[in-house]
Amino acid sequence: MDVAIIGAAMTDFGDRDGWIRELLAEAGRACLDDAPVGGEAVEHCYVANMASGELEGQTGVMNALAHDLDLLPAYAERVDQTSASGAAGVFEAYQSVASGASEMTLLVGGEKMTHRETAETADLVASVTHPVEYRHGVTLPAFGAMAARLYMAEYDAPRESLAEVAVKNHHNATHNPYAQFQTEIDVETVLDSPMVNDPLRLYDYCPVSDGSAALLFCPVEEARKYTDEYVRVAGVAGATDTHVVHERPDPLAMEAVAESGEQAFEMAGWEPADIDVAELHDMVSVLEPLQLEALGFSERGQGWQAAVEGRTALDGSLPVNPSGGLKARGHPLGATGVAQVAELYWQLLGDAGSRQVTADRGLACNVGGFGNCVITSLLEVAG
Amino acid sequence: MDVAIIGAAMTDFGDRDGWIRELLAEAGRACLDDAPVGGEAVEHCYVANMASGELEGQTGVMNALAHDLDLLPAYAERVDQTSASGAAGVFEAYQSVASGASEMTLLVGGEKMTHRETAETADLVASVTHPVEYRHGVTLPAFGAMAARLYMAEYDAPRESLAEVAVKNHHNATHNPYAQFQTEIDVETVLDSPMVNDPLRLYDYCPVSDGSAALLFCPVEEARKYTDEYVRVAGVAGATDTHVVHERPDPLAMEAVAESGEQAFEMAGWEPADIDVAELHDMVSVLEPLQLEALGFSERGQGWQAAVEGRTALDGSLPVNPSGGLKARGHPLGATGVAQVAELYWQLLGDAGSRQVTADRGLACNVGGFGNCVITSLLEVAG
Q: Is the same domain home to A288 and A155?
């Protein structure tokens, strides 16, 4: 059964008051209003969230959301795929409709993180990795730095080319009213910022964020009852890589990105050249070129050239992260994959305001761990 | 697409050494061996687990499992619906196959709890409830006691009738080599045990447990390649009730049980009289008669008579919890709903040893919170 997305919404990302449950309700309510669809029509309600129990001591947030949005007796469930929880929610929401289990599925992704010390959230996120790496203090930011060092050495990628990713994504976010950082930066801002993991600095990394985003899914034939124009899920697939990163023969190959992309392209019957806009998982700057390569948008070792040459800018041949990406829109773990697809929804329907690009087909890639599990989604405008 | 279950396995339940990840791998490996299916055939791998992060400080357990069982590049995801996480996993595994997203889905549910103080696990489980109730100290066991008191007052249910549920389930567990308590008890054992929440005592409640259980799902047409006889998922549905229990007009109605049951029966085209065996969520003794009533097996207020009259015994007209139930098999949160369906799998295929009942069709009901979200599954033997 073909699956449509007929609504999208998100909260402001950043340092937010309130608890996870309030953030989820804010985005969920806005999404139902966006369609518009009444809560009584919702049959499944998925919450994409990695760690409300660890970070807030609050579990059962999916049942709370169903209650708060008056969705009863809708089925409720929480979905976790670490930093790719949002896209895991997209995948589950798709399956719920495609299987016939639900004719109207609300997906709300969110995370509340800024009330905790950064060291605590860093430790939580590090616990997604294999204990043999965790015990040595290899956090996700550290994996990013090692990958950047290897990438620069293997392919003569200039240090500045990584900074250009952050510069572009900050620029894009100045056009996104939901973004955490709506400020321009330049390459010097990145290179002069505090060292985090040599050679990467503060502005190579996404921030710690609060926020929530939501999407509404239904069968394509039902979508026409609500709207003339909607977005169709043309492909969606997920794949794992080794849980021990150092066991990978080529740590720069991002094999789960490649595998999930190939499966999604096969499902859609598309190829990379068909994509007009992409939202990639730039948790750390080097991940954007690595994903461009693994997804087939760039040759191996050449992904870094895209930002330098402006090909991934808003007016480039393949705009990447028009939303500002994780770097500048922010990265509330469970919200990110949902916000990526929400951005594509707005871009494909022409509702992206001053960051609007020309696009009929889009791709979102959400990365769990350091590529330990990755979900790629392909969307197109329909109606 | 019709969905089959072609393998099942579980670990011993109880006070186990090792961590969640080892328990999950033990059950998952045994399930693949049971089919037998090689890991390379698995396309989706779901882990049903409520709280590995909270209880062990270990997240990303689904990616670890995919790695440990050599399932790469299978997609991996964690599913949480509090104490009904296992059945949420069953629902997702069903949807993954029915939607065409996966042709072979491994579901492994598990929880490691006994290494923590009981007060800590009780607090974690209490955090599934609404804060307005949590703040007053209304834990799930306390909800059980209030429901028991109301049930006894409204329907003249004898106190002993609730104890009979525990007695029956302990007896059944003496025939289940995986069960946590393989010991007979009698009504006096229950009534003389330490008071927990007046009027309920220690033996009215399920224990704190470690353990894991696993199931393997594929399309019915693929099942015949592996086995002559398998189990078909005839119906599966989930529903929420109010997140604030005290807002329910009738707290004994278990409306999410009733709703999920009605939806599952409608999907299967069955009615309660078609069911030969049931696994119900006896976290506390009174929940078994309340579920019998909400699912249409007993009239309102008469569910307590079933255990007293022996109708739910192994040789009764509707054997309930032949496995020993949560009470005596044990209740490792994420494992329970998977173990319920594994028990039905063995019963329907005639592989249940000395606890075997005569059954072609079975029902499993897994309850999250105090009925805050409930999933009911209907299975039948096929081939």
A: yes
